[in-house]
Amino acid sequence: KAGVTQTPRYLIKTRGQQVTLSCSPISGHRSVSWYQQTPGQGLQFLFEYFSETQRNKGNFPGRFSGRQFSNSRSEMNVSTLELGDSALYLCASSLGDSDSGNTIYFGEGSWLTVV
Amino acid sequence: AQSVTQLDSHVSVSEGTPVLLRCNYSSSYSPSLFWYVQHPNKGLQLLLKYTSAATLVKGINGFEAEFKKSETSFHLTKPSAHMSDAAEYFCVVSPPSGGYNKLIFGAGTRLAVHP
C-alpha cells in the first residue's frame, strides 16, 4: 500500500511568487491535513480537508489556502511568498471518520526555499 | 486549550542503555496522545498512540509509553538504545473532540546515540 506522496520534494521560489504543493493520501483515506515545519516555530497545523470541505484551520494568514479534490488528493497554495515561508511542508492523511484519535500518516514533505 | 511540553530539547545516551524522553500534556479532558519520530530529511513516522484504552502503550521498534493522568505525563521509553534510534522525537496531542486531525506538537527532543 503506497504511503502519502508529496510533490515536488524540493523547490526554490522568489519572494512575491506563489507556489502550489500537491499531496496524494493513502488509498481510502478521506482526510488530508497540512503542517508547516520551521526551526523557529516547530510544527504547526495549517488546515484539514475532509470530503472536499475544509473542516479545521490553523492560525495562518489568508495567503495560505488549500483544496481537496473528489479523489481525496489535496493541494495547498501560498501566494505572495515571503522569506519566512521557507519551511518543510508536511501533508498527512487519515481515514478521518473519528473526530479525535485518528491515526495520521505523514508524507516526506516538500522543502520550500524562498529567496 | 491543549498543549504538550517536551522537557528536554536534547538527550544523549550510549548504545545499549535505556532511553527516556519526557512529555507533559495539558488538557481539560482525556486527550489522544502520540509519539512521532523524524529522521533527518524525512517525514514523520508514528511510533505509538494512546486513546484511553490501556495506559501502557507499546509501539514500534521496542518503544513504549505510559499515560499517567495524575502526573499529566506521557513519557517515551526504550530499554536499549540502538544507533538507528538517533532522530528527533515529537510528543503530540489531539483535542478530545472536534479537533479532527489538528495535531498539536511539542517542540521536539533530539536523541543522540553514541557507540
Characterization of the model:
The complex is a heterodimer of chains A (115) and B (115). Chain A is mainly β and 115 residues long. Helices cover 0% and strands 52% of the residues of chain A. Chain A is built from no helices and 11 strands. In chain A, the strands form 2 sheets. In chain A, strands 2, 4, 5, 6, 9, 10 and 11 form a 7-stranded mixed beta sheet that branches. A 4-stranded antiparallel beta sheet of chain A has the order 1-3-8-7, with no helix packed on it. In chain A, strand 4 (31-38) and strand 5 form a beta hairpin. In chain A, 38% of the residues are buried. Chain B is mainly β and 115 residues long. Chain B has a domain at 16-88: Immunoglobulin-like (Sandwich), CATH 2.60.40.10. Helices cover 0% and strands 52% of the residues of chain B. Chain B is built from no helices and 12 strands. In chain B, strands 2, 5, 6, 10, 11 and 12 form a 6-stranded mixed beta sheet that branches. In chain B, strands 3-9-8-7 form a 4-stranded antiparallel beta sheet, with no helix packed on it. A two-stranded antiparallel ribbon of chain B has the order 1-4. Chains A and B meet through strand 4, strand 5, strand 9 and strand 10 of A and strand 5, strand 6 and strand 11 of B.
What is the makeup of the main sheet of chain B? 6 strands, mixed
Q: Please, what is the average pLDDT of chain B? A: 90
Straight-line distance between termini of chain A: 37 Å
Number of helices of chain B: 0
Please provide the count of β strands of chain B: 12
Q: What is the H-and-E element order of chain B? A: EEEEEEEEEEEE
Query: Whole-number radius of gyration of chain A?
Result: 13 Å
CATH architectural arrangement of the domain at 16-88 in chain B: Sandwich
Helical residues, percent of chain B: under 10%
DSSP strand (E) fraction of chain A?
over 45%
